[in-house]
Amino acid sequence: MPPTLIVDGYNLIRASPVLSRIDQENLEEGREALISRLADYRKVRHFPVIVVFDGTGFYHLSTEKETRMGIKILYSPAGRTADELIVSLARQKGREYVVVTSDHGIWDRLKDTNCVCVDSKTFDSKIDNALYELFKGTSLEEEEGEALLPSRARGKRRKLPKKLRRQRDILRRL
C-alpha cells in the first residue's frame, strides 16, 4: 500500500508560483486550485492524499472531514492549528506517511516518527512532472534522459542507512 500524503495546504499554495498568484487574488480559489492539482496528481501517482488547511478564525470553513475529487480535506478546528493537526495525523500508527510542508517546526516534531518530510517547492515540482506525464503520456525525466542520471562515482560504494534508503525510494515514487 502506498504511503498517504499529508499536505500542508496553505504552505504548498504559497510555495507554488502558479498557486500563489491565484491565492493572492482569492483565497478560496487558491484552495480550489490546489485541490484540483492534487486530484490530477493522484490520477498519475495513486497516493492517498489528505490536505490540511488552517481553519482557525474562518467561521465559514467546515471543521468536518470532506472529500472532493478523491482528496480528503481537513480544516483545523477552533483552538488548534493546522500544524498540530498535521503532526497528530502523521503520528498515527499503522500507516506510512509523507508530510509535504516547508515548515521545519513540523519536520522537527516528526523526527522521531517513521514519516518522510518533503519540502513544498520540491513537491510542487513533483506535481508539475506528474501533470506533464498525465497530459503528454511521458515524464519530463524520461524526456530529459541521461541528463538526470547521476555520474558514476569511483571507489568503494557504501550502503545508505535503511531509513535514508526508504526516504530516497519514497521520494523517487512521488
Task: Report on the architecture of this protein.
This protein has 174 residues and is α/β, with parallel strands linked by helices. It has one domain (4-173): Rossmann fold (3-Layer(aba) Sandwich). Helices cover 48% and strands 14% of the residues. The chain has a six-stranded mixed sheet, sandwiched between helices. Helix 1 crosses helix 2 (17-25), helix 2 packs antiparallel against helix 3 (27-45) and helix 3 (27-45) packs across helix 6 (120-136). The two termini are 14 Å apart. The model is unreliable at 143-152 (pLDDT under 50).
List the helices and strands and how they pair.
Blueprint: E1 4-8, H1 9-15, H2 17-25, H3 27-45, E2 49-53, E3 66-68, E4 71-75, H4 82-90, E5 97-100, H5 104-109, E6 116-118, H6 120-136, H7 140-144, H8 162-173
Parallel strand pairs: 1-2, 1-5, 2-4, 5-6
Antiparallel strand pairs: 3-4
Helix pairs in contact: 1-2, 2-3, 3-6
Order of SSEs, N→C? EHHHEEEHEHEHHH
Distance between the termini: 14 Å
CATH topology, by name, is Rossmann fold
Helix content: 40-55%
Category from helices, strands and their pairing = alpha/beta
Total individual domains: 1
Number of strands: 6
Tertiary shape: globular
**Poorly predicted spans:** 143-152
- Examine the secondary-structure arrangement and name the CATH architecture: 3-Layer(aba) Sandwich
Q: β content, as a range?
A: 5-15%
Q: How would you write the strand order of the largest sheet?
A: 3-4-2-1-5-6
Query: What does the main sheet amount to?
Result: 6 strands, mixed
* Overall radius of gyration: 17 Å
